[in-house]
Amino acid sequence: MAHSNIPEAEKILDKEIKVLDYGFIRLVDYLGGDDRIVQAARVSYGKGTKTVREDRKLIHYLLKHEHMSPFEQVVFTFHIKMPIFVARQWVRHRTARINEISGRYSVMENEFYLPRREDVCFQSTANRQGRSDEELPEDLQDRVLHLLKQSYEQVYSGYSAMIDDNISREVARINLPLSLYTQMYWQIDLRNLLHFIKLRADVHAQKEIRLYAGILADIVKKVTPLAWEAFEEYDLNSLRLSRTQVRKLAGVLEKTDPNLLKELGMTNETDETS
Ligand SMILES: Cc1cc2nc3c(=O)[nH]c(=O)nc-3n(C[C@H](O)[C@H](O)[C@H](O)COP(=O)(O)OP(=O)(O)OC[C@H]3O[C@@H](n4cnc5c(N)ncnc54)[C@H](O)[C@@H]3O)c2cc1C
Description:
Elements: H1 7-12, E1 16-19, E2 23-31, H2 34-42, H3 52-64, E3 75-83, H4 84-90, E4 97-100, H5 138-164, H6 169-172, E5 181-189, H7 190-200, H8 207-223, H9 225-236, H10 243-256, H11 258-263
Antiparallel strand pairs: 1-2, 2-3, 3-5, 4-5
Helix pairs in contact: 2-3, 3-9, 7-8, 8-9
The chain binds flavin-adenine dinucleotide.
Flavin-adenine dinucleotide (FAD) binds at residues 92-95, 192, 195, 199, 204-205.
């Protein structure tokens, strides 16, 4: 079987899925699906698979034991439109191939991200990188939105005036803020896409990029449902414990549930030098 043709993926191919006010994610193309992971793991021709049940078992085994290279055989290409501050977080993920719209070449559109009123929050005191849950008076939220809108209008009219005066685009664009929308083609393999989703769908990530990560997750579910299921089971919803935590837990389980202790492959090792 040369090409994977996944009906659920075909349905969303080339469709813009809206995010935020002007953003979107569009699945441009995909290479391979769950069957490709299985073929690669077995280095087999054709279907290379026995039954869906066996494929599922193999994919779960691979993910559980972190045999991740077969997941790199599946590749996604997306067209994404996002505010520049989201793009700055996005491009920290180094294992993708990117082409971004050039503000030196193109005249940038008058498209700035304006948060929804409920997303205008106080600074969190518990999380230095986050927003507070504390309720904000509506008039303050409206004032913030008005300020943002006003500055966008001012900044874009300055930009347009410079463009009209034939000032080079690469100079005119330097007054544009982080809220301006940019676009990129983003190609990444499944292994690294799952890693991206894990970090960026997490509650510690900024809400705006989390919305994008959630859509990427929905797309992965359609293209590689078995891999997604295994990822949810062994990675996304799993928990990493420190050695100290393992020891504490082992101590409790030894008394309460020795069978589970054995099943988890834990020992109640208390020797600090081990
Ligand atoms: C909630 C959150 C807050 C953040 N805050 C900040 C911040 O305040 N400041 C800041 O600068 N960054 C911040 N980051 C970015 C973060 O430090 C990472 O750069 C980003 O999440 C990409 O992660 P990564 O390196 O694992 O992923 P990728 O770059 O996608 O790499 C994927 C994997 O490939 C491997 N890899 C990639 N490159 C190398 C390499 N050179 N050597 C060895 N292995 C490699 C690693 O296993 C890596 O996990 C934040 C990220 C998150 C999710």
